[in-house]
Amino acid sequence: MADLVEKLKEIGFNTYEAKVYIALLKKYPATGYEVAKLANIPQSRTYDTLKVLEEKNIVVSANTKPVTYTPIKPKQLTSAYLKKMNSTVNYLDKHLPEVKDNYNEPIITINGIQNIQEKIIEVIQNAKREIYMEVWSQDFKVFEKELLNAYNRNVEIRIVGYDNFTSRFGLVFEHAFARDIELSLGGRMIIIAADDEEGVIGKVSSLKNDISDTNIIWTKNRGIVFIIKEFIVHDMYLIDVEENLVEQMKYIYGKGFKRLKDKVLGTNATYMIH
Questions:
Q1: Strand 156-162 relative to strand 130-136: parallel, antiparallel, unpaired?
Q2: Predicted TM-score of the model (pTM)
């Protein structure tokens, strides 16, 4: 009986309600006095409990003297519970996702090369449709296996590669100014956008064991992920245009886009755009 009481409590009964219902299943119709004796609970609590069960349509009273009570059949009880539970679950399935519309995804800072590598591997493993990435050749080696796995499960891979970059798979745009950028930034950028859902952008310090300057931000915020992807896509545009219009670009903007950089950043700028 104790097990039945506990199971009834799991579907919304309290202890007195469970004991009264089980007592009525043993003998019905029964008076309040008889129920109290069978359930082994105080008579005053028995009448209160019977009233609650009647309001819940679990017990039916008869207009007799004294009043007698009859429980609904166990099958009726479980069917009613399942119907209510299914209705509740369907409602939650429909309306809980709507709550996320007003939820701002966090932007999380991750420090340390190992933690960064683990997070990027996780992002790659989560990807189902596409990965856009900017990465140096030495960092690419860490992620190459997982990227190949993603490629083999039909995830499109597009990479801006730095520093004599090569890959056996995916579409690669090789960046021409890797060394200049690394010297300017004091490190190697790592950028990734996956499925328009997850994004990472940050830097690995050129100085060995420099934890303070080795960090990324990771987010599922759609707005930030969109910006990260656009950053990579525009680099790809520029690289492809430059490869096909080398002399024209040099004539218009100067070697290494110097005139363009001076125009946008000023002649005294220390930051090297890419």
A1: parallel
A2: 0.60
Q: Are strands 215-219 and 59-62 parallel, antiparallel or unpaired?
A: unpaired
Task: Give the amino acid at 192.
Answer: I
DSSP β-bridge partners for residue 146: none
- Long-range contact list for 79-87, CB < 8 A, 24+ apart? 81/11, 81/12
Report how far apart, in Å, the C-alpha atoms of 38 and of each of 31, 43, 186 are.
11, 11, 81
Residue carrying the six token digits 């798979």: 169
Residue 188: CA count within 13 A, CB half-sphere? 22
- Buried b / exposed e over 129-165, threshold 16 CB at 10 Å, is eebbbbbbbebbebbeebbbebbeeebebbbbbbbeb
3-state secondary structure 33-60: HHHHHHHCCCHHHHHHHHHHHHHCCCEE
CA atoms within 13 A on the CB side of 106: 3
Contact 216/116 with Cβ under 8 angstroms? Answer: yes
Best CA proximity match to 119, nearest among 197, 199, 209, 210:
199
Q: Which residues contact 136 (CB under 8 A, 6 or more apart)?
A: 161, 162, 163, 165, 178, 182, 188, 189, 190, 204
What domains lie within the chain, and their CATH numbers?
A: 2-72 (1.10.10.10), 107-265 (3.30.870.10)
**CA distances in angstroms from 197 to 37, 119, 194, 222, 223, listed in the order given:** 62, 14, 6, 6, 9
List, in order, residues 6 or more apart from 90 with CB less than 8 Å away.
Answer: none
Closest to 182 (Cα-Cα) out of 170, 157, 164: 164
Q: What is the pLDDT of residues 158-209, one digit of tens each?
A: 999 988 788 889 999 988 776 777 777 778 889 999 999 999 999 887 666 5
Q: Are 39 and 19 in contact (CB under 8 A)?
A: yes
User: Among 211, 231, 225, which Cα is nearest to 273's?
Assistant: 231
